[in-house]
Amino acid sequence: MPSKQKASDPVTHLIGGAVSGFCACVFVQPLDLIKTRLQQQQQAHLAFIKQGGQAGLTIAPLESTIWKTVFGIVKEGSVLSLWRGTVPTIVRNVPGAAMYFTVLNESRTLLARRKINGVERADTVSGTSALPKLSNTENLVAGGASRAAIGFVMMPATVIKVRYESNLYNYNSMSGAFMSIFRTEGIRGLWAGFGATAMRDAPLAGLYVLFYEQCKTKLGALKATSAYFDVSTPTIHMVSGIAAGFLSTTLTHPFDMLKTRMQLKPTEYKNVFQGARKVLMEEGAIGFLDGIFVRTIRKSIHSAISWTVYEEVVRWHLARKADNLA
Question: Hey, CA dihedral for 169, 164, 146, 296, is it positive or negative?
């Protein structure tokens, strides 16, 4: 079928993923930086309270609000300081998004071609999506497996990005950050926090694809049956992206919090289980929600932009190819 062939064209999805990754990371970089700083400030405050308590001091809680964090970052230089770490983010996100969307599409295409009870599927391409049409379980597996594989490949860039955004390290360049990590922590330092990252990213990506496709299907059906819901396809993609991003991010946030701490302070948070135990003992269950507000907003916006841009680039590319063949 032509639709199958188009959906599985790897170059189309590689280009769409790269463009979407670039647009999304530039737009939401300030939120990513703020999230890292808020989590870092929370750790510093808890350490301060612990030291003061041991010395018998009574310490009033310090407030680490979003606005104070923003003003503090701007004071370091200018408004452009909010985009600190954009270069390593682009280095990580653009090839990462390109590879992820390509691998995801190939995985879903293979799953879509599977026979069910020995019978070929009648409909393997969704009318509102650039991706093949799958069951909920297949969406969950394809999204999670693709993200875990790409996450492992891109992990060194992720570690460098997180530390470059933090003011705990005085890195002047990406190469300097790489050499510093390699000298002090060895090759394993470049994969610091991968366990927590995989435990976060695999379920996050799987749940995201599941929620995203379900939301698009519901909104597409509503558009087809209701005269009052006459919205464009990009709008459906954007709304679906925000909803899926909010739900999947909220459910997987504790792993993101652990991942960030393991990358910022690998000597204190040595692995997922030790880190989780440390957070629970020192901060209680509420500690696992540290930074959830900023991350939820950031991830919802990032996902909506990246998936909308990706689907539109793929649709435009396929339409252009179709016109050239006509």
Answer: positive
